[in-house]
Design brief:
Blueprint (H helix, E strand, L loop, with lengths): L6 E3 L4 H11 L3 E4 L5 H6 L7 E4 L9 E4 L2 E5 L4 H6 L1 H6 L1 H6 L6 H6 L2 H7 L5 H8 L3 E6 L2 E6 H4 E3 L2 E2 L6 E8 L5 E7 L9 E9 L5 E9 L6 E2 L1 H7 L6 H14 L16 H20 L1
Parallel strand pairs: 1-3, 2-3
Antiparallel strand pairs: 4-5, 5-10, 6-7, 6-10, 8-9, 11-12, 12-13, 13-14
Helix pairs in contact: 10-11, 11-12
Length: 290
């Protein structure tokens, strides 16, 4: 199929991008890597009157470590982040997640911010951002604001971004001495996951859990923060009994049959996704306990 007609704009500064968004509002659509938007256009599931391409905007290409945070510009390609020594050194959870994002060819074009803003509930990067308590930095012609990941993902393909706003950067905290994991079950490499889990723990000197952050994806309309898992882990040692108990908590957090959770599909039903979430949490914690 062919996309609907639209006007194409390729500004070279962030101010020019924001001016376009201010002028056209919800009639405009940002083009970053195009790996999600172009198929939507071709299937006529999206009908913007203006496409604003940010490929030439240098302000969204930053990848740096600043003040205890890893800062990734919205226009940084997934492949660049995947190959970055800075990312692998400072954020092992993200480094482990990136090879699972689509196929190599799509990661070369796809952008970090594009995946976050697209907010596909089956996608890996929104779940990583949620588990790490990332901060989304947004800009419009009238100002800037920051939104925590917990408040950013509102529903399937729906975020806190206003029509006149651009996601400019994602800020991920750098965790000292954290043990991280990323696991997903998918039909084949590069496919969307049937269920996935990512998380981290930090341990104190007595090997008990001091802090934890976990999320699941492909099991709900949004990446799902596993707050029950985090609470159950706090102050515990990663013993076999604790791992079994926490896995049961994870299964319970995926509400089977609820209207606001994933319906059954050709790959799995809700009960299977709940079971897999528990199993993946158990495997993740087993890795962390070693």
């Amino acid at each position: 199929m062919k996309p609907p007609q639209f006007k194409y704009s390729r500004p070279e500064t962030i101010d020019a991008v924001l001016s376009q968004l201010s002028e056209h509002g919800d009639e405009a659509q940002i083009l970053a890597g195009g790996q999600s938007l172009v198929p939507l256009l071709n299937f006529r599931l999206s009908h913007p009157s203006v496409i604003v391409d940010i490929a030439l905007v240098p302000e969204v290409k930053n990848l740096s470590s600043e003040n205890g945070s890893l800062c990734i510009g919205a226009g940084v390609s997934q492949r660049k982040a995947e190959c970055s020594a800075l990312v692998s050194n400072e954020c092992t959870m993200l480094s482990r997640a990136l090879p699972h994002v689509g196929h190599l060819q799509t990661r070369v074009r796809g952008t970090f911010g594009g995946s976050i803003a697209h907010a596909d509930p089956n996608a890996e990067l929104p779940a990583v951002a949620l588990a790490l308590d990332a901060t989304m930095h947004l800009a419009s012609a009238t100002g800037k604001r920051s939104v925590p990941a917990n408040d950013f993902f509102l529903g399937p393909y729906t975020t806190a971004l206003s029509p006149d706003e651009l996601l400019t950067e994602v800020e991920l905290p750098i965790l000292d001495n954290a043990r991280t994991a990323f696991l997903e079950l998918s039909p084949t490499s590069g496919d969307f996951a049937v269920a996935g889990v990512c998380g981290f723990v930090t341990l104190d000197s007595s090997a008990t859990v001091r802090t934890a952050g976990f999320s699941a994806f492909a099991v709900a309309p949004v990446p799902l923060r596993l707050t029950g898992v985090e609470t159950a882990l706090h102050g515990q040692r990663l013993t076999a009994d604790v791992l079994d108990e926490v896995a049961a908590v994870a299964r319970g957090e995926v509400r089977i049959g609820s209207d606001d959770m994933h319906a059954d599909d050709m790959h799995a039903d809700g009960r299977y996704r709940a079971e897999m979430t528990g199993e993946l949490v158990h495997r993740a914690l087993t890795e962390m306990a070693q």
